[in-house]
Amino acid sequence: MSMYTVICGSSMLWLHVVQPNLTAGHYGYIADEYERHVILRGVDVETEQRNIPADQDRPIDPLLYDGQCPSNINVYQEPPVCEIDYGKGMYNINDEWNSHNDFAQIRRWGFNVIRLCLSWSALEPTPGNYSEMYLQRVEQIVEWASEQQIYVILDMHEDLYSRYIFGDKEHEIPPYLTASDGQDGAPQWAVMTDDWPALAFFGIGNLNLAMMKAFDNFYNNSIPPNATQGNAPGPGLQDHYIGAIAFLAKKFVNNSAVLGYEIMNEPQPGTYIDQYTFSSNYLYPFYKRVIQAITGVRDNLPDCPKYAPTGINCSYPNLGINDKRHLFFVEPTSVRNLLDFTPQHSIPFSSYTNIVYAPHVYTHVFTIDSILHLNRSIYPPSFDYAYETALNESIGLQSAILVTEFGCGTDADETLLIPTIDSQDKAMISATIWPWKNNCFQKGCETSWSLYDSGTLNGTIANQNGPERPNRVRILSRVHPRGVIGQLKQYFYNTTTSSFIMTVNCINKTLLLLNNETIVYIPRRLNNSVINVTGEATLNKIIKNPDQSRLIIINPTCNGQYRVFVANNTNQIDKLYQQTVINNNSNSKSNNHHETIQSMQEAYELYQLLHTAAVKTGETFVATSSNFVNKFTALQNAVEINIKNIMPLLNKFLVITFEQRKESKIQRLEDRILAREQREQDLNVSTLQRENDKEIAEGRRMTDNLNAEQQRNMSLEQRQHELAIEQQRYDKQQEQRSEDIKLTTEQRMQDLKLAEQQRENDRMIAERKQAADDLNAEKERNVSREIEEYRYEQAKNKDLDALLLSHINDMGTLLENYNGSLTANPTIAALARAKTLHVIRSIGPERSTRLLQFLFDAGQLSYDQQTPLDLSGAILNRIDLSMNNDIISMRHVNFAGVHMNEATFAGQDLSNWNFTGASLNYANFTRTNCKGTIFDDSSMIQTDFSYSLLDDASFRRSQLAGASFINSSGERCTFYSATLPNSTFYQAKMGFYNFQSVDLTQANLEEAYMSGSTLAFATLVNAQMNGIYVLFANLSYANMFGAICSEDRCHLHDALSLLNAILPNGTNGTNGHRPMSLLQNGYAKCNSGGHKEDHLAAWSMPGDPISTKTDYHSENLCVFTPKKGGLSQDTNMTQRVNITMYDRLIKNGHAVVSLKAYRGQFTGIEMREIDGTGKVSPVLPSKRIIPAPEITIWETHLYRTTVQIEIKLMFQVSRTWAYAWFQYADLTIHLWLP
């Protein structure tokens, strides 16, 4: 139990993620227990450790904050977070700026969430020892937030990996590099930089060399030196980090005030250049391990062994917390801050559904235009762009979205802060602004990022903060929805007019069964605003909170669309209703789509060049530093080597900037010309105005004279007017009498009509009553019928349960009598089979599941220990054997010949099951483990294997028309002679698959990975093949006529063989496709210019005794031959070839080496293989060819450890020159599959 005062636990609603559904028309979003769309708005509150030395950090002992607030010392970067009046109740706490009650102040702003930035170095100060005191401090802050009904995101915060990365400020630094410190995150014992210097390329913190190397070691789970494992789940850096998150999660597993866990702030890619590969191979697996450890979700994978918890194709060990209610917030790499889009694969990486995408948006603050001081109009194209790309990325991840950082200095409120918040509203994205408060006591603090002024400094102590910044209150304390019933279509708050509009579409009345209240928040500063609700909803009430804020409670009918308006007055609401509130155009000038894509590519290319140059600089420095006397010279050398490729593109951006400055100068000149013309126009207007004034004065004099004349004639006209009025009064009296007569007649007619209508109504009421009586009678009959049917169904179920139980007992008796086997005795096997098939036909799929479980538990379905019971012909259609049906995992099960159409196996481990000859049409195998499973000769029309693991599975001769293998993966799976027209292998990962003689007509193979697979004799007519990866694949004799395979996205010539293949354009693939020779200078060249010896550069020749010439024998051929005098002893030329590019083929035993040479009789050839340790493996004597015919072709398998091949040409001593020569040698690698 904590030592500080805790009043009560959390009473807040649990929130969860509703995943994106574009068919239903919505992105992913966060919802509450009543399925209301929740909008969260808040701030980032800091508790992480940044200062060096550590004793300058704010204290973490919760006792120092219990009813008090520690002194705000001038060295703190942020004031201590306090709540000195905690425990008095939500609205009974002083929320003024000088109250030392941070969370009451946060509630006053209208925020309902904070992102609490935590520190790994505080959680795990020494290896494997997690700090109970720091945990109690975090618990204290969560309780403070809970009292104010504010959710907390626990953020494992780091900036540039660790404060223990120290920039080199003592030595001279070469150009383009800047000394750069880390900021916060990892403890000192977890910093492993491999001696890379702490210098940033172009002053960009993301390109700090030491920081990049530290992240490499983190992603590789390197084991820190001299560090004990302690209470961590493993010895590596990631293991310690996961242990720290688990330490938090165990404390808050049942606390709904904790919204969830942000796994890592702004993760860096380290030295990994390819961001797409990095996300798939390092970042997502890291996130996945954290989620597996905390939630216990296994993702259909077996547990990793405890001695290697971060293994591949296994799930991180379950740490026993089993938290399946909290959200996990995952960020893209920090590269997104520079680009406003993330260059990484946005695909689901976990089966856990409560995942929230948490990018940071700093458009024109940290984007590449600002970092490199380029003109803002170059890139990004708009403020909306960052949120549009973020929404698309969240769809790919199948997650909700919450932007966990945005912000800027207060001098940019109008130009940066308002546009980015407007874009948030348009995109309907929740967000937290950085930061809440900070200390800044020097000149320039008036533009700091904080929501409050810094406190006043008195010596070394300052008060916690100054007053709120009024402009920030105007911008951030705004009207917004809190919980919305229905589909939120739009909402927008206009900062200028303080007006708000929200549009919601609700057609699902079942939502009203949970809760019928939509809630909109209005801050205290707008407590006089007018509210209007239109459409399919009514305004229920307006709750005025004690802090003068208001909650609008709206009751939708869910019959269609409804809108909510908030404005200063009714006229403004009318205008809002009439006009389009949210302009669909971007909030800043945007390029067309093509220009946007081009600028994206250029920005990413510029970053890639900077990143590559930084990585290469670090690598060059480490590799060459021993060659230089001092560090500066080594660094300067490394920079000069790697800076050359950056400058052209950077100069391109700078040229654009210059041209835009030139355009700006021209614009200013045009503005001056327009101003001069305006002054001349104003002068002309003044002259005309004076002339108009003279005409108006003359007109007034004439009017006065006319009025005097009219006054003289007034008396006569007045008398005539009175007579006319008398006549009009008499005429009106006559008209009134006529009208009274007419009304009396009409009243009598109306009374007659009403009497007739009453009689008709009475008749209709009588008819309706009769119809209602008839309906009630019919309902009673239906109820009686339903009761009878229910009773019949109950009796039937009872009989079926009895039949199932009886059969199980019968089988149990047979097992007892026949030594635990139903198949050892042929007669008993036939009897058990017949009875079981009969019972299966009778009891239906649900009970059949229980029967199969019994037979498996009794060892009668597995073929690994004894002959299984033959169930061929059994009707098990629509049976559910998925993980969701509480089926215990079964292995080596025999379902050969069984009918299981429309069956469900989703998520199940089907390793080594046998479905030979089975009927599995329309079955669901999504996310199953089919390792070693046999489907030979089966019918599997439109069966779904999406996201399944298919290692060593077999589908020989199966019918798979329309089947789906989207995102499936595996190696060595075979589809030999199978039929797969219209099937889908989109983004499937298929290494060394066998598709020989397979029908893939009109199949979708887009972005499929088929490295090392064979498609020999396959039919791929009209197949979709864009993005297919066929490196080392065998496409011999394949028919690809009409396939969709654009030249820029379909690199068929990467295949090992296209022998006699029909290409999409109808040509023969043999033409122009010849395996590349691995030898350099393998062909003799005599007349190509330059020195003849240049053509021998790749060969090693002791004594340089060999040259090229054309006067060999009687033919005019260019050949390699010894120089004169070169045959006094054996003369040779040797070349070693690196073949690590074929490493995967070689290690899997699928590589064949082919050697072809044209040479003289006394020229011998020898080939040797060399492994990774440098060991030379002698080639069998039969592989040494001396002597031989002029043309030699030879092939053999390579050893699995081979990394180099050595070719040696030997010219033997002879009496004639005619036979000591060779013209060429070809060395190629081929694919072999058994």
From TrEMBL:
Keyword presence, Transcription: no
GO biological process: polysaccharide catabolic process
Domain called Glycoside hydrolase family: residue spans: 94-439
Pfam families: Cellulase (PF00150), Pentapeptide (PF00805)
GO molecular function annotation: hydrolase activity, hydrolyzing O-glycosyl compounds
Family annotation (InterPro entries): 5peptide_repeat (IPR001646), GH (IPR017853), Glyco_hydro_5 (IPR001547), Glycosphingolipid_Hydrolases (IPR052066)
Hydrolase keyword on record: yes
Keywords: Coiled coil, Glycosidase, Hydrolase
Segments forming a coiled coil: 706-781
PANTHER family to which the protein is assigned, alphabetical: ENDOGLYCOCERAMIDASE, PTHR31308
Family, as annotated: Belongs to the glycosyl hydrolase 5 (cellulase A) family.
Protein name as catalogued: Glycoside hydrolase family 5 domain-containing protein
Natural source organism: Rotaria sordida
Lineage: Eukaryota, Metazoa, Spiralia, Gnathifera, Rotifera
